[in-house]
Sequence to fold (315 residues):
Amino acid sequence: MPIDISPRLLRYFMAVAEELHFGRAATRLYIAQPSLSHQIRKLEETLGTPLFTRSSRRVQLTAAGRTLVREAPKALAALEQAVQLTRLAGSGIATTIRLGYTPVTGFDTLTTLLDALREDHPDLVVDPREYFSAEIPERVRAGDLDIGLALSPQLVDGVAGEILREEPVSALLSTRHRLAGTPRIPVTALRDETLLLFPRQLAPAYYDGIVTAFHEAGFTPEICAFEEPPVYAMLARLAGGREVGLAPASFAEHAAKTGTGIILRDIVDPPILAELSVVWPANDPSPAIANVLTTARRCAEHNKWLRNPITAPPR
Fold:
């Protein structure tokens, strides 16, 4: 059974331990000596062991008392820190935000947002955690995450969201691929290609949007869904030269710069859009979450991430 000891009792104990005199400790604490003696006896009864040996001439610490002298300041300091952090979190001045992000956002959107948060809220600590888009709303609802960045997330009860970034889906292919010399690739030109995508369950709405674009062009694409880790699996396979990877343009640009023998090409007629959303607990009044949302919206406006910017304040 847990022992219930108030911080006040620990402070009374520390005063007696430092003075080794109940009268002087009582004066220091501005309480009556009998009341202080009663409180120390109460603490000893709670702990089940004497903390002091008392005589008419002196007060001494027992072995248990000496142990508590070492440990009580740690407990009081930890409590004070918890109270201070709680107050700061409530004010939005300083706290830790657990931010979930989908892998394809990590090279541009996430780094831009983190830089902006450091500028706007230098006391805010951000703990980035990588998840697939389909996981993020549920983790926000469960309290595992405070906020998330996900591709076309399917919102759940208790989770709010809005589009933060719209960008085209681009093609990644080997410099040896037959379409490498085509600067802008029409959707119909991919009719006979094998397309690399991550499994549908990791971001269903994003996956379905891509497939729908090909259906509207008059054919069903041949898709190879590679297993995790999907980002690096795709880059490795593309080097073979026979497949085409599809990814949001910001990620595709980074991959083309870092992947040996891989280039980026625009997809046109029609372009395919990827929508990245920010999601957060719908009923959380935390100023820290509101601050992150405000900064995210500022990033979207400054970097022109949206065709039709949303300016409504967080609800």
Remarks:
- DSSP finds ten helices and twelve strands in the chain.
- Residues 310-315 have pLDDT under 50 and may be disordered.
- The radius of gyration is 30 Å.
